[in-house]
Amino acid sequence: MKAPAQRPELIDEKATECCSLASSPLGAGEAERMTAKLKALSDPTRLRLLSHIAAQGCDAVCACDLLDVLDISQPTVSHHLKKLVDAGLLTREQRGKWAHYTVVRGAFTELRELLDLR
């Protein structure tokens, strides 16, 4: 049994929906920046830390509040937060003894644009 022919307008529509990762290929500099962000996100502990900070919206989160959430030591939390700051995903503000972290929204806009499969 032969499959029914598709209407031409459906075929054209599917062709225009082909996966395109970006409007143009990445340059070397942009690829380096995006790789740093993606590498930072590839660690489960960092991803969990980031999700806890992002869940606070625009509010800064004290590193002291993250210790109990993930049940990891302060040096480990500091190490992973530094990686996220270095990747441009978080900002760090020192307030007395503790550092406070905020999500860099523009970094996530860039990641969304890179991964947009429209």
Automatic annotation (TrEMBL):
Molecular-function GO term, any one: DNA binding
SMART domains in UniProt: HTH_ARSR (SM00418)
Keyword DNA-binding: yes
Keywords carried by this UniProt record: DNA-binding, Transcription, Transcription regulation
Domain HTH arsR-type: 26-118
A Pfam family reported for this protein in Swiss-Prot or TrEMBL: HTH_5
Highest taxon of source: Bacteria
SUPFAM superfamilies, sorted: Winged helix' DNA-binding domain
InterPro entries given in the database record: ArsR-like_HTH, ArsR_HTH, HTH_ArsR_DNA-bd_dom, HTH_MetalResp_TranReg, WH-like_DNA-bd_sf, WH_DNA-bd_sf
NCBIfam families on file: HTH_metalloreg (NF033788)
Protein name: ArsR family transcriptional regulator
